Amino acid sequence: xxxxxxxxxxxxxxxxxxxxxxxxxxxxxxxxxxxxxxxxxxxxxxxxxxxxxxxxxxxxxxxxxxxxxxxxxxxxxxxxxxxxxxxxxxxxxxxxxxxxxxxxxxxxxxxxxxxxxxxxxxxxxxxxxxxxxxxxxxxxxxxxxxxxxxxxxxxxxxxxxxxxxxxxxxxxxxxxxxxxxxxxxxxxxxxxxxxxxxxxxxxxxxxxxxxxxxxxxxxxxxxxxxxxxxxxxxxxxxxxxxxxxxxxxxxxxxxxxxxxxxxxxxxxxxxxxxxxxxxxxxxxxxxxxxxxxxxxxxxxxxxxxxxxxxxxxxxxxxxxxxxxxxxxxxxxxxxxxxxxxxxxxxxxxxxxxxxxxxxxxxxxxxxxxxxxxxxxxxxxxxxxxxxxxxxxxxxxxxxxxxxxxxxxxxxxxxxxxxxxxxxxxxxxxxxxxxxxxxxxxxxxxxxxxxxxxxxxxxxxxxx
Length: 463
Fold this sequence. Notes:
Blueprint: H1 5-12, E1 20-23, E2 26-29, E3 32-33, H2 34-41, E4 45-49, H3 51-71, E5 77-82, H4 89-96, E6 101-104, H5 107-118, E7 128-130, H6 136-147, E8 153-157, H7 162-167, E9 174-179, H8 199-210, E10 216-222, H9 233-252, E11 258-260, H10 277-294, E12 301-306, H11 308-311, E13 315-326, E14 332-336, H12 340-343, H13 345-349, E15 355-358, E16 366-372, E17 381-382, E18 391-394, E19 403-407, H14 413-417, E20 431-437, E21 443-449, H15 454-461
Parallel strand pairs: 4-20, 5-6, 5-12, 6-7, 7-8, 8-9, 9-10, 10-11, 11-12, 14-16
Antiparallel strand pairs: 1-2, 2-3, 4-13, 13-14, 13-19, 15-19, 16-17, 16-18, 20-21
Helix pairs in contact: 3-10, 5-6, 8-9, 9-10
């Protein structure tokens, strides 16, 4: 009778695969024996597999460049990393090894760029795309970057008031872009994105406000929708509108030469995930070219700002099951040694789901369970996977440890959870370990951060 956890996973998904495999009855991730990592560092534990960052960047570069070659596309492709997905130094440094550019969201992002430059990890030729609503400090930092020789800094206007602020005390040429306020998906709460400038206002705004500034060079139109890049009529309609606007604006502004389609490539959140990345890249490039050809306009350079796609699949969170509680005839709770609210906050906030697998005991029978966190918040739980309405794990046996892992959770968790700050119920932030490969292909580990101490929390609280 095939009732073991191993049988459940192997019958339900394509397992093993290039990412996940088994040695005896223990899970390996990118050929990393996770039980060895747990024995060395304990749980709860946040880990990052750094080579995955470079792999995904190169994958996207290859797909878009191949798509451009197939379409005989005349523009270039530029990969930007969206820093808000993860600001950690090891993430930025790993991404920059792949010859990418940077997209920023706030004032402190510019300070990070300056620190990277001082360390020799970024040069002044990089494109720095400055998005977001710009408060005075952000404006000042962008101006400082331009004055210090970062000539490819492009401040993307989110509203009609930012240009005058940027132009103050800046007596040199600088580049700008305009973000288009795209239409939201029909089921969304609003009709139009709160970000950017309305379609109908962009050309009049250029003619009446931008063109008169001799130092200002409009180089880019920025287009992005919240639901990301998907093969839907809604996405293609919004992309078409953006490219048509580019072609019309190009007639008035010959130096306009780039379109930014933002981020939105999805990441794998369950084992039977399937997304036609190559098809989408080819279709995006083909549609841009066709619209430009129809309008007799040279194809623009294409920029993307992938954040989650860059870093999401490099991260994992490991827990141990500390106890099991039978609350009624149907509800069995496995309690983890941390909190979902603090370590995987978007599972609580937006019902995000990740790949969840047992680390050990794959040859044991499985059972349906709910997963509970340590806080006294009733919402601190995880009870379903993206592909099913249940969580299945090996049966808990007395005097036997059970470990579980959540995978592809490398984006946004620390920033949403308040890394280094006050955690709900004062549950400490876990250790963080970086995994890399040496020149011979053997994995190495490095402790990036210890588990948060009570002293650091009390200091923040004023004790």
